[in-house]
Fold this sequence. Notes:
InterPro entries: Cupredoxin, Phytocyanin-like, Phytocyanin_dom. The protein is of the alpha/beta class. Helices cover about 30% and strands about 20% of the residues. It folds into two domains: about 100 residues, Sandwich (Immunoglobulin-like), CATH 2.60.40; about 35 residues, no CATH class. A five-stranded mixed sheet has the order 2-8-7-4-5. Strands 1-3-6 form a three-stranded mixed sheet, with no helix packed on it.
Amino acid sequence: MEVLRRVSGGGLLAAVLLLLAAAVSEVSAKRWTVGDNMGWTTNVNYTVWAEGKHFYYDDWLFFVYDRNQMDVLEVNKTNYEACNSENPLKNFTTGAGRDVVHLNVTRPYYFISGKGFCYGGMKLAINVEHLPPPPSSSPLNEKSSAPRSTHIGHTPFVLTAVFAAARALIW
Length: 171
Ligand SMILES: *[C@@H]1O[C@H](CO)[C@@H](O)[C@H](O)[C@H]1NC(C)=O
Ligand SMILES: *[C@@H]1O[C@H](CO)[C@@H](O)[C@H](O)[C@H]1NC(C)=O
Ligand SMILES: *[C@@H]1O[C@H](CO)[C@@H](O)[C@H](O)[C@H]1NC(C)=O
Ligand SMILES: *[C@@H]1O[C@H](CO)[C@@H](O)[C@H](O)[C@H]1NC(C)=O
């Protein structure tokens, strides 16, 4: 009884809001596993992998690779093209073979693996875009083949929560 009374106070509302907030951030950012099941490795063409994908502000890249061999370096365009791994803009290598990159700026990003692997094709160039404006019509009327759920990130809470719940069920 006492628990119920407490929960039904401000606590419940806060809990619901927290859940909704979690749902919103869940659907508005995407984590991309670079190379999908292949990961970050040789014999994958990352230009082909990135083709047709849209990377948006606040998305994440997840590099999965053999920590004893490869690494993850962000370089500029010149060094991307030349496979020059000296003085990278940023070294994302943590040593675990599992590195994440938060795409927190809308601009082109260039990644390579050093240690010679870039020459074999371990290089990835992407352009990070602003989120597209929300569609003028209701997302419910959109083609169900819409590839991502980003569009609903800015729609009212309730709708977003419904979508999140639906996604959770599908997964
Ligand atoms: C990239 O950095 C190198 C120095 O490492 C510099 O010479 C080159 O001009 C830079 N390229 C771009 C496009 O900024
Ligand atoms: C990147 O960081 C890792 C881990 O700190 C380090 O072992 C490696 O030498 C660095 N690579 C470059 C090119 O700076
Ligand atoms: C973006 O994230 C990087 C780390 O990945 C950080 O160094 C940088 O300060 C961040 N930039 C902004 C604008 O938040
Ligand atoms: C990857 O594929 C693109 C487009 O088909 C091609 O232009 C490029 O040369 C390929 N890269 C490698 C390293 O094979």
